Amino acid sequence: MKRITICGTMFLLVGLVLWSSAPAEELRLQSRAKVWDVYWNLGTQGVRQATPMSWYRPTGMQYPGKFWVQYPKEFIDYWGTRDWGVTGWRVWYNELNGTMPGFNQFIATLEGGEYHVSESKANLESEDVVGLGYDPSQGPEANIGYNKVSPLGPPMANWYPGQDPPGPNVPVEIHNYRYSEYMEADKDHFPESIIISHWTTKKGITVTKKAYAWSYPDYDDFELLEYTFENTGDLQLNDTFLIFSVRFYISQAGQAHYVSDSYYRYTVPLALDDWYKYTEAANFDGPAEAQGLKMWYSFDGDNPDIVGNDTGKPYSKDRAYSSWHNCCLQFTKVEGELGAFQWVGVAPLAYMPGAADDPSTFTYDTGGDGSFVAPRLADQPQTVKWWDYRTRTDYSEPGSENNSSQQIYEAMTSPPGFIQDNPTTVDGLNASFSYGPYDLAPGDKVRIVYALVAAAPVEDNIQGWANAGNQADMLTDKGMNNLLKHHTAASNAWKWGFDLPDPPPDVKTTTGASVDGFNQVTWTNDGDDASDPDYVGGEAQDIAGYRVYRSDYKVGDWKLVADVPRGGSYSYEDVRSVAGFEYFYRVAAYDTGHDDWNGTGMAIPSLEGGHSSPEQWANGVLTNSPYVPANSAADGMQRQVRVVPNPYKVDGAHNYPTAGLMRFVNVPHKATIRIFTVAGELVAVVNHDDPSRGEATWNQTPLTGLMRMPAGVYYWVVESQVPGSEGQTQRGTLMLIK
Q1: 545 has which bridge partners?
Q2: Are 242 and 209 a contacting pair, CB within 8 Å?
């Protein structure tokens, strides 16, 4: 018997987004590293394909992560929304770097001659899977985490010391980082982001899954997934297998706009053309240094059914599904922009209790009772298999939808020691890894630690590189080399007990308008004296300065625009910002570097704060367009009112990215704008009342509210409603060319 979890519905109607009631089981989003991912308390990670076929369903892993409307809890509640009309839809939709619908678990037991399989996977959780509340105050996390508050007020993590733990329907989320200050020394040996899922099964195997992430440069391209399986029942569970099922479909997000495949909802063969490799397969043809890692990885291939080489999925307007392009993509997609540029892999870091110098083992036992056990066979995983994934309802991986528990158990765990050859053509596949068999007495535990690693052919400004359409880089070894580099960093993070060189902390940054109508970026000097917990004395206060970055229109395409040395108050006026266009900003502190880290003799170069998470961007995910602030001269009608663009014409030179947008600048903060035909007929009225703005906007909507104004020449009249200049007017003309 299976259980389908219903998580909410979203409908799109005339460009408006309407949210349904909150789902019974809440997701938590890891958005601290470049790898963003979704977690649920019943063990599912990534896409919940069980959600009804609706516009709203949380997406899976992204690399590099960025804002996406299907992450409601993390963004709408914490950072607020922008206009969710056609403009907001165009800005955000298809800004996707999705790669993985799911990282899932099967727990297979054979007890008393009875087979039983519990499933936590994308399309269902079996009925015996029950969510449990996890209490961090009783675990190793008891004293870590900070109460970080979002710009809108609510705490962003759902647990920190002194807070009641959340209930059984939501994972625990801990933020072990803060603005303007390093972690305290007693919290420095824990990751920045921790998400904990906790569930149990019919046979009494209780699972605690902890996901770890950092925003540290060089350590932000992976997540660590630590699973602890414990027999909390009263049965002796021999012949137990712990099975992981992994689904990466790199090409699908990048190719969705070609086939109207709405991002994992309607998977079609045309969108499944990836390469899949397992480093221990007999026919593995990848780099020699990857062998021994037991890594399963995937990357985009060339679809034989598409003319030309489509590796990396470069965007093509001519090939795009026309309705997608016309409604949503014309302002967000660049011709040739790569949409499937990732290499993504998973590899075990630890799965046997044992010696500290063996990277496949672990030595700590949080219970202190020595109850971690090893499988009967030393070489793990015991069985590795590939499964066809053709559509959402057509796949060969066994599951309770079509198979008995005995069939699932036998298909995934036999024959012992079987490692299936890698596929020799591009495809869409799942992989399963079976660990076991384990003989679990009541109280026995198993720990398995995985690294989920991602890479692109470049290390910095990945989005900017992808926008430029550098397809040639996809055909080199650069992506795979970076994947192996990031795996080494993940392995070090685990072996070092999470004690990593600390970059400077986040900088709380805001943006506003300067008196001249440019974007003004400001931040406090609170971080100047932040004390690095890895050092003492004056060396610990190592902040040297701040770098200001700007991303034009697409968050992630960061370009350095200013380097500000430490000292004084901090502000940057972006005189290259243009009203009507949107920009993102981030300010990153950088330190002096150190000759010796933690007494190891290892020199640490100057480090810069991260830029992976919304906390490291000005105003979180909100974009910023320059505007003329309210001022006494405009209020007194002493400045010439101007209309821009004028004339208006959709040709890239006489229009803003926002469809129909026109601006009346240097207007009083309270004014009425009337627009007339040349015959004197009143056709539109704009009532401007904003004490902060000396400009008003008009999207060419007429009084009737239908469509937009037709082409032609129009007269406008601006009348002040501000006391002192009330009744004064200015007049002019504007032209619409359609």
Answers
A1: 565, 590
A2: no
Beta carbons of 365 and 372 less than 8 angstroms apart: yes
Residue 80 has a pLDDT of 64
Whole-structure pTM value: 0.88
Handedness of CA 78, 83, 86, 87 (dihedral sign): negative
- Whether 484 contacts 290, CB under 8 Å: yes
Sign of the CA dihedral with 650 first, then 651, 654, and 656 last: positive
Q: Helix, strand, coil shares of the chain as percentages rounded to 5?
A: 15, 35, 55
On whether the CB atoms of residues 429 and 101 are closer than 8 A, the answer is no
Q: Which residue did the predictor score with more confidence, 374 or 552? A: 374
Residue 698: strand pairing partners: 662
Q: Which residue has the higher pLDDT, 65 or 108?
A: 108
With a CB cutoff of 8 Å and minimum separation 6, the contacts of 601 are none
Q: Which residues contact 710 (CB under 8 A, 6 or more apart)?
A: 736, 738
DSSP secondary structure code for residue 24 in this structure: S
Residues 671-721: pLDDT tens digits? 999 999 999 999 999 999 999 999 999 999 999 887 789 999 999 999 999
Instruction: Provide the b/e sequence for 508-521 (b: ≥16 CB within 10 Å).
Output: bbebbbbeebbbbb
**Euclidean distance between CA atoms 231 and 700, whole angstroms:** 66
Task: Write down the pLDDT at residue 611.
Answer: 87
More confident residue, 356 or 319: 319
Residue with tokens 């690294």: 451
135 vs 71, more confident = 135
* CA–CA distance, 516 with 514 (Å, rounded to integer): 5
The SS3 call for residue 11 is: strand
CA distance 132 to 96: 32
Tokens of 658: 């926002």
Residue 298 has pLDDT above 70, yes or no: yes
* pLDDT digits 0-9 by tens, 355-408: 444 545 555 444 445 688 999 998 999 999 999 987 767 789 999 988 999 999
Q: Write the CA distances from 612 to 136, 176, 231, 415, integer angstroms.
A: 26, 15, 38, 43
| Number of neighbouring beta carbons within 10 Å of residue 177 | 25
**Which run of H or E residues covers position 572?**
strand 570-574
Q: Which residues contact 208 (CB under 8 A, 6 or more apart)?
A: 134, 196, 197, 198, 227, 228, 230
Are the beta carbons of 509 and 587 closer than 8 angstroms?
Answer: yes
On whether the CB atoms of residues 511 and 624 are closer than 8 A, the answer is yes
What pLDDT, on a 0 to 100 scale, did the predictor assign at position 84? 37
Of the candidates 354, 413, 420, 416, which has an alpha carbon nearest to the alpha carbon of residue 379? 416
